[in-house]
Write a structure and sequence with these properties.
By secondary structure, the protein is α+β, with helices and mostly antiparallel strands. It is built from eleven helices and ten strands.
Length: about 500
C-alpha cells in the first residue's frame, strides 16, 4: 500500500510539474506567434514606405496623378501597420524612431516634391526626390524595428524549446520510476494478494462447479481473509436459496397450468362475424401474464353480437379471477337476450357481497349486424369511441362503477353505420405515462381509428398498439385492453 501511495504521489507531483511547464510553454508559444505576426507587420510597414517612396519618384518624373497610387496605398498600409505595432511595448522605442524618421521624410521630401510636381516644377521635384539621406534614416529605423521583432521571436521560440525539453525529461523520469515501482508492486501483489486469491478462487470454482459443500477458506491478509469469510457466508446462504428455489419451482410447476388457463380465458378467441364486419382485440398485463382486465365478443342471436370489456381494480391473479367471473356472468345473461343495463344489474347482484375495497368498471354493447343499431351500457368505464372515419363520438358512462353498493344503469342507443368503427378501451391505455410523466390520453386512439374502414379491425388495433409502444416503451402501470368492432 505504501508503494502504491508513493507511486500516486509521484504521479501527482509529475503531473503538476508537467501541467505547469506545459502552461508556460503554451504561453511562450503564444508569445512567439505574436512576435511572428509582429515580424510580418514590420515587413508590411517597410513595404508600405517603399511603395510611398516609389510613388513619389514616379510622380516627380511623370507628373501623372495615377503615379501617386503606390504612395496613397502605402500611406494607408503604413498607418494600419503602425497601429498594430503600437500594441508591442517591447519595440515601442524602435517604432518611435520609425515614426519620427517617416515624419521627417514626409515633411522635407515627400510633401514638397508632390507640391513642386503639381506646380509644374518637375526639375525641383526630381531634385528633392534625389536627396536620399532622409529616406535612408527611415530605412535604417525600419531595419532596427525588424531586427527587434526578430530578436523577440527568436527568444520566445528558444524558451518554448527549453520547456519542451523539461517536459520530455519529466516524462522519461516518470516512466523509469514507474517501471521500478511496477516491479516492486508486482512482487508484493504476488506474495500478498495473488496466492491467497488463488486459494479462495479454487474453492469458489469448486462451488460453482456444483460442489456446494466445499468450504471457502479465510486466508491471506485481513482484507482477503474477510473476503473469504464473507464468500463462505454467501455460499451458505446460496445453498439455502437453492433449496428454497427448488421448492418454489415445484410449486410453480404445480400451478402453472392454472395460470396459463386463466390467461387463455381472459383473452378468448374472437368470432368471425362476416357480412363486412371485423373484430380484433389486445390485452397487455401490467404484471406477469395475468391481468385484471378481460374482454369477450360473442354472438347473442342469429344476427347480433355482444362486446364486453371489464376492468377490475388491481391486477394479477386475484383481479383476473374476478374479471373472468364478471365476464362469464355477463355472457350468461346477454345470451338470454337481456339489455346491457339488465346484464350489469344481474351481474352485480350475483357478486354481492363484494369486498368493500373491490370494484370494477364495465362496458357492454349489443349490435345488430344488419342495421348497425347498437345498445350499450357504460358502468363507470372510460368513454368508448364511435368513429365515422373523420369524427369520433364518445359513448359516456350511463351509470356508476360496479361495487358492493348497488347502482342503477341505463341503456342507450347508437348506430355503427357503414365505415364506422367502435373502439372500447380501459384506462390502462389513456393513463399510460411517458418518461416525463405525461398521459397518453385518447387523442392518439382517435388518430389511429380515423380514416377509411378498409383495413379491418386488426389494423386499427395494431396502430393503437404501436402508438402506445412509441409513447410509453417501458412497463405499463395498469393493465391495458382494447377491443375494436368495425363495419366496412
Amino acid at each position: 500500500m505504501l508503494v502504491f501511495v508513493g507511486y500516486l504521489v509521484l504521479i501527482a507531483i509529475a503531473a503538476g510539474l508537467i501541467i505547469a511547464v506545459t502552461v508556460a510553454r503554451d504561453n511562450t508559444v503564444s508569445v512567439s506567434r505574436d512576435w511572428l505576426a509582429a515580424q510580418e507587420q514590420a515587413l508590411e510597414l517597410r513595404s508600405a514606405y517603399l511603395n510611398q517612396e516609389t510613388g513619389i519618384r514616379g510622380f516627380a518624373i511623370s507628373g501623372d496623378d495615377t503615379s501617386l497610387d503606390p504612395y496613397t496605398r502605402g500611406t494607408t498600409d503604413g498607418r494600419t501597420a503602425i497601429t498594430q505595432l503600437r500594441a508591442r511595448r517591447a519595440v515601442r522605442a524602435e517604432l518611435v524612431d520609425v515614426e519620427a524618421a517617416a515624419a521627417s521624410w514626409h515633411r522635407t521630401i515627400a510633401e514638397p516634391a508632390i507640391a513642386a510636381s503639381r506646380a509644374g516644377d518637375a526639375r525641383g521635384a526630381t531634385a528633392l526626390v534625389g536627396q536620399t539621406a532622409s529616406f535612408d534614416r527611415l530605412r535604417a529605423a525600419l531595419t532596427s524595428l525588424m531586427a527587434a521583432t526578430t530578436r523577440h521571436y527568436t527568444s520566445a521560440r528558444s524558451r518554448a524549446t527549453q520547456y519542451r525539453r523539461v517536459i520530455n525529461g519529466v516524462i522519461a523520469a516518470l516512466l523509469v520510476l514507474g517501471v521500478i515501482g511496477t516491479v516492486i508492486a508486482a512482487y508484493l501483489v504476488r506474495r500478498w494478494v495473488t496466492r491467497p486469491v488463488r486459494v479462495i478462487g479454487n474453492a469458489v470454482r469448486e462451488v460453482y462447479g456444483g460442489s456446494l459443500d466445499t468450504t471457502v477458506p479465510a486466508v491471506g491478509p485481513p482484507e482477503l481473509a474477510e473476503l473469504g469469510y464473507e464468500t463462505e457466508e454467501m455460499r451458505t446462504r446460496l445453498v439455502g436459496a437453492v433449496r428454497d428455489a427448488r421448492r418454489a419451482r415445484e410449486a410453480v410447476e404445480q400451478n402453472a397450468g392454472v395460470v396459463l388457463d386463466l390467461q387463455a380465458n381472459l383473452q378468448p378467441e374472437l368470432p368471425k362475424l362476416g357480412s363486412g364486419w371485423s373484430v380484433a382485440a389486445d390485452l397487455l398485463p401490467a404484471e406477469g401474464i395475468v391481468a385484471g382486465d378481460c374482454y369477450d365478443v360473442m354472438e347473442v342471436g342469429p344476427r347480433a353480437v355482444a362486446a364486453v370489456v371489464v376492468d377490475v381494480a388491481g391486477h394479477g391473479a386475484i383481479g383476473g379471477i374476478l374479471a373472468l367471473r364478471c365476464r362469464d356472468l355477463l355472457r350468461s345473461v346477454l345470451v338470454l337476450g337481456a339489455d346491457p343495463d339488465e346484464a350489469l344489474l344481474s351481474t352485480i347482484r350475483q357478486l354481492v357481497p363484494l369486498d368493500p375495497e373491490m370494484f370494477f368498471t364495465a362496458f357492454v354493447a349489443v349490435s345488430d349486424l344488419d342495421t348497425g343499431r347498437t345498445q350499450y351500457a357504460n358502468a363507470g368505464h372510460p368513454p368508448a369511441l364511435l368513429c365515422d372515419g373523420k369524427v369520433c363520438t364518445e359513448l359516456e358512462p350511463t351509470g356508476p362503477i360496479m361495487s358492493s353498493f348497488l347502482g342503477e344503469w341505463t341503456t342507450k342507443t347508437a348506430t355503427i353505420g357503414a365505415g364506422h368503427t367502435l373502439l372500447i378501451y380501459t384506462d390502462g391505455i389513456t393513463e399510460a405515462r411517458d418518461g416525463r410523466g405525461e398521459f397518453f390520453g385518447s387523442s392518439p386512439l382517435e388518430r389511429a381509428v380515423t380514416g377509411p374502414a378498409r383495413e379491418g379491425a386488426a389494423a386499427v388495433v395494431a396502430r393503437c398498439r404501436q402508438a402506445l409502444d412509441d409513447f410509453a416503451p417501458a412497463r405499463l402501470r395498469d393493465d391495458a385492453t382494447l377491443v375494436v368492432l368495425q363495419r366496412a
